[in-house]
């Protein structure tokens, strides 16, 4: 019988990535990524569009097979023990496609039943999640008729219904209105406060700086810096540290004098 017990070196980490790489047409989307996400942390993965954040998170959660390297979730190998790893994961992929002809309540219920949960437990948790996420009045509406913010919230509810220990959220606040964003942040704060781990990707530095306690900067498929937010920003702002690493700052509009207003 295969032993799927957690290796001791991964015991203290919620997610451990070792040498994860993925290439497309010979070009690296993620290149030898090593990262440890402490259990109980609120971890931000930041980088420009196309930096490799989604590829890295997809490999870390079993949605995309790496060309090389390993990923462990609370000590369980994502590829050698996918059931053990995914039982502990709640995932909100970027651009997630939902079953839009289901109602919000049906979608959450389906997610719970798919996990093998007892129907009565699913019903109770569905009711709790709809209320907590401000979707109670929309429970009977088709997901196809939901706004962007409502869609994010019902997808989050589907990721939470089985009470995971690690949440991986790819751009969870993109296209979300401020009220919905605050509602989601409160839920996530409570989740981390109770011992859960949240990993979120974003290219909005201010959001990550205000929300997360740990951060990793991803540029060109590699981890350029990782640690607590204070350590990574090194006395400045996270945005300044990121821009210094990423380079490519513009010339502040030099040559666009014609675009500026005049007194004429």
Automatic annotation (TrEMBL):
Coiled coil start-end: none
Localization of this protein: Cell membrane
GO MF: ATP binding; ATP hydrolysis activity
Domain ABC transporter: 15-245
Family matches, as PROSITE patterns: ABC_TRANSPORTER_2 (PS50893)
Record-linked Pfam families: ABC_tran (PF00005)
Membrane topology: Peripheral membrane protein
Family annotation (SUPFAM superfamilies): P-loop containing nucleoside triphosphate hydrolases (SSF52540)
Major place of residence: membrane
Cellular component GO terms held in the UniProt record: plasma membrane
Keyword Mitochondrion: no
Entry keyword set: Antibiotic resistance, ATP-binding, Nucleotide-binding, Transport
GO biological process, alphabetically ordered: response to antibiotic
Protein name in the entry: ABC-2 type transport system ATP-binding protein
Taxonomic lineage from the root: Bacteria, Bacillati, Actinomycetota, Actinomycetes, Micrococcales
